[in-house]
Amino acid sequence: MEAAAYKTQEEFGQFIRLHFARQDIPEQAVVSGMLTLTVLRAALLRILQFLRDDPVCRFTQLTDITCVHYPDRADCFSLVYHLLSPMMGRRLRIKLATQEDVPVSSVTAVFANAAWYEREIREMFGVSFEGHPDLRRLLTQDETFFFPLRKTFPAAGKVRLVYDQAKGQCVYVPCAKPEKESDVRLDRKMS
Amino acid sequence: MEIKEIDWLDQMRQQGFAAITLRVFAAWVQENAAAAMPVSMGCCSCFGQLQQVGVAPVFNPHHADVLVVSGALSNKAAFVLRRIYDQMPSPKYVIAMGTCAVNKGLFAHSYAVADVADIVPVDVFIPGCPPGAKEMTEGIRALRRVIRDKIRNV
Amino acid sequence: MTIFEDSYFMNIAPFPAVGIGMGRLVARLDGETVRRIDPHIGFSHRGIEKCMEEATVLQGLVYTDKLNRSAPFSCAYAFVLAVEKLLGITVPERAAYIRVILAEMGRILSHLRATANLASETGTDIVYPLVNRASERISALISEICAGCPVSVYIRPGGVRNDSELETADHLFAWLSKELPPILSDIEGLLTENRIFKSRTVGIGHIDASLAAAAGFSGVNLRASGVKWDLRAAEPYDAYNEVSFDIPLKTDGDCYARYLLRIFEIYQSMSMIRQLLEKMPEGDVILADFTTRQTEVLTQLSRHFELYGRGIALPAGEVYSAVESPLGEFGVFLVSDGGERPYRCHFRSAGFPVMQALDALTEDCDLADVRVIVASLNIITTETDR
């Protein structure tokens, strides 16, 4: 019955913010139909724990974690957590700005399936996580030493894989020349 | 091939024998009884396509004469592909099936995809996304020509 | 952590043995019993997320088609919905109907293939020819609707590429009433009460509801455990609120439940396609701004350049949109900075959390059951690895 009181997304956001100090959740917005909360690094685990266990929220499922790289910002990585509450039929997005050298606390203790998502973010962006059980590379080869999904990394990569007859194994060689923009691409400013 | 040998073959034929050299025979056997090992990395599924054109797939590199690589080859899978290739007994042949395997196709500008021809020597390229039965048949025919030429011209 | 006596490692690869994609499991075995499994993925990782940042929307649709070839119109659909949400447009009603019909046909195709894979892992290879026959027909019908290759940029922002011929509806009706039911009843006859099939699947790969929900399961895998969650009913998109359908539910959470649910869902999809065909509205199939079909040749040319050269400009913002793909919830998280190319495009693949939970699912099961469990979960590694 309590859930019915928070009909609009904004009201629901206010309800969540009531449970925490003002600086823990500094921002709240509804972005294309989904409630988005910006949280502080220190409060992340507490907020997720609350959202999972609170009888009004019941966000029992972590749909997804991903990251967006903004190279020109001071906190250049924006971690995005998507939560789902199948019982309430609600979705929620939580955002957290972070840098490369400051680790974010891993949420594997709250949502077990966060483990691989965090592994992927570590591998693709180089964001480090604190308290994660296993941060091996997931999708790419263990020998790769770059973070491909950063904006500063060229899409075509800096190395390519060839078989070395003399060594008898596959080796990475640097790309002969930096790949140019594809010819088919037209100028963005074309009117 | 030496002229002397051919003379001898001709003599045999004139006497009413069906005579061919061992090399020709070996080529005939190889091109008609090649066992193919499908390795499918990306979205083309070569298993069904091979069955369609009448090639029996085997799943052990030690028993395979032909390696059929289909789909975009990621860097991680490239190491595996080379190991599979190294385990195959000679003479061995490679078919690259699908545009992604031929020249990386859509993923030409991707950091994660390797060129199949950089990893293993490819004999036959079958383009198409995915290749149809007609292209596959054409490709298998081309492979038979490759096998024949390779063995006869040793 | 327990140290297992007399245990050893074994590589289980490649899986799936047939079909698309490639994965590897490293199993820790104790005799024939699986103690731990470490799934290694990434063999089909093609960097599609990075490629999407370099591509306009229409180019990007080609990449999304490549994510899951065995279930056409599942991944591209989510991407198109995300773009439309960002643009704030509603598609014509006829286009919405055609899209749902195609999505359901894709679901039938994918479920049939998953059933065939599961049957072949349990030793009933005879299902393959049946499914191949059905899937060839479905592919032909899809080509007929799309007027071309089954994997094409057919579902696109603003509607669908082109309208289908008049007689296509008759072909679909004939297929639904005459061609598909005998194949389905053959498959069911072969599997549902098959003693060997049941002994290989009943009680194998069990996962209970709370664990499945916490592990991020979705789709058939979640509903087999007893959680009633279907995006088609919970967050209906396009024409899904125009049709009535049941959400079949099982509580066993084992391989057999997942198989049964797939078969039930095929029947539901058939009824959905029939309902949609019966009340198919007339009209356009694509919004005028997103097509080159104009009366004047000159406008057509300039529109063509605008659409295919420069691309559709995406308003700045971020959006998450998910569809109920045959494998589960497939979501797209799209961030735009106002340009024609997405700033960031992340795919939430349905198989990713399932792959992650394999360790829990295969706990203390027999080595021979691992392949059965993997097949019953319907993991497509090209979709998982992106």
DSSP summary: helix tally of chain B: 7
Which CATH class of chain A applies here? Answer: Alpha Beta
* Shape type of chain A: elongated
Number of DSSP E strands of chain A: 9
Per DSSP E runs of 2 or more residues, the count of β-strands of chain B stands at: 6
**On the 0-100 scale, what is the average pLDDT of chain A?**
80
Terminal residue distance of chain B? 9 Å
Work out the count of structural domains of chain A: 1
Fourth-tier CATH superfamily name of chain A: NADH:ubiquinone oxidoreductase Nqo5 subunit
Provide the β-strand percentage band of chain B: 5-15%
User: Averaging pLDDT over every residue of chain B, what do you get?
Assistant: 80
CATH topology of the largest domain in chain B, by name, is Rossmann fold
Structural class of chain A: alpha/beta
Proportion in helices of chain A: 10-25%
Discrete helix count of chain A:
3
Low-confidence stretches of chain A: 182-191
**In this structure, how is the largest beta sheet of chain B organized?**
4 strands, parallel
**What's the number of domains of chain B?**
2
- CATH architecture title of the largest domain in chain B: 3-Layer(aba) Sandwich
CATH architectural category of chain A: 2-Layer Sandwich
CATH topology of chain A: Beta Polymerase, domain 2
Keywords:
heterotrimer, A: 191 residues, alpha/beta, Beta Polymerase, domain 2, 5-stranded mixed beta sheet, 3 helices, 9 strands, elongated, disordered C terminus, B: 154 residues, Rossmann fold, 2 domains, 4-stranded parallel beta sheet, 7 helices, 6 strands
Walk me through the structure:
The complex is a heterotrimer of chains A (191), B (154) and C (386). The model of chain A is unreliable at 182-191 (pLDDT under 50). Chain A has helices spanning 9-18, 44-53, 114-125, and strands at 27-31, 34-38, 61-69, 77-85, 90-98, 104-105, 129-130, 159-164, 169-174. In chain A, strand 8 and strand 9 (169-174) form a beta hairpin. In chain A, the strands form 3 sheets. Chain A has a 5-stranded mixed β-sheet, covered by helices on one side. A two-stranded parallel ribbon of chain A has the order 6-7. Chain A has 191 residues and is α/β, with parallel strands linked by helices. The radius of gyration of chain A is 21 Å and the shape is elongated. The mean pLDDT of chain B is 80. Chain C has one domain: Cytochrome-c3 Hydrogenase, chain B. Chain C contains 16 helices and 8 strands. In chain C, a hairpin with a 2-residue loop joins strand 4 and strand 5 (159-160). Chain C is 48% helix and 13% strand. Chain C has helices at residues 48-53, 57-65, 75-87, 93-121, 127-146, 168-191, 195-201, 209-214, 220-223, 231-234, 255-278, 297-310, 351-356, 358-361, 367-377, 381-385, and strands spanning 7-15, 23-30, 33-40, 155-156, 159-160, 317-325, 328-336, 344-348.
